[in-house]
Amino acid sequence: MAANNICILKITSTIFAILILSSNFMITPIKSLEFSREVSMEEMGLKTEKLSHLHFYFHDIVRGRYPTAFRVAESAITNSSATRFGFVEIIDDALTLGPNISSKIVGRAQGMYASADLNNLGLLMVLNYVFTEGKFNGSTLSILGRNAVYSDVREMPIVGGSGVFRFARGYARASSHENNMQKNGGAVVEYNVYVFHY
Questions:
Q1: How far is the CA of 123 from the CAs of 98, 150, 156, 168, in angstroms?
Q2: Is RNA-binding among the key words of this record (predicted)?
Q3: What's the pTM value of the predicted model, to 2 decimals?
Q4: Extents of the domains making up the chain
């Protein structure tokens, strides 16, 4: 009888301990399951916001020995459309310090552009500018916007970045430096980029 009481007491104690521990887990919030929380700028390592001006040339080469832009899709009307509506090109274009392709490379423009206007040549630009020089080496800027190709100056928004350009915002001003449509189907475009970053 005493042995039965001891066994019942052990089982009851074990069940009680399990219930106490289980209720602790149910009451205590689990931080890893939080969806969001506020963080301080110091916690993120953010200091004073800066405004930088970057200047470079974008070299788009569609045809020739060493093309940097490749058509990956087109619509049923691309070939009959005055604006080549619906074509999509994937690019890995050099960004250089000067207008000559042999000048110092400071990065690459990687992404895509597509003809997205039936009436005027307007490109949807979805690009990452990947920088390979100086204090911006390894950092990127992301561009998403409309490029009205035949306008003297075009503006496209900077929607973000990485590395030095985390939390980046600003705009890129593009102006055609040289049209190489006859030579290699491409162009040399001068860029002035104004970007806020930390």
A1: 24, 11, 11, 23
A2: no
A3: 0.78
A4: 47-197
Residue range 179-197, pLDDT digits in tens: 866 566 789 999 999 999 9
Query: What does DSSP say about strands 154-162 and 122-131: parallel, antiparallel, or unpaired?
Result: unpaired
- The structure tokens 């619509």 sit at 75
Torsion of CA 188, 192, 196, 198, to 10 degrees: 70
Q: What is the pLDDT of residues 75-130, one digit of tens each?
A: 999 999 999 999 999 999 999 999 999 999 999 999 999 999 999 999 999 999 99
If one looks up domain 47-197 in CATH, what number appears? 2.40.480.10
Strands 88-96 and 50-60: antiparallel
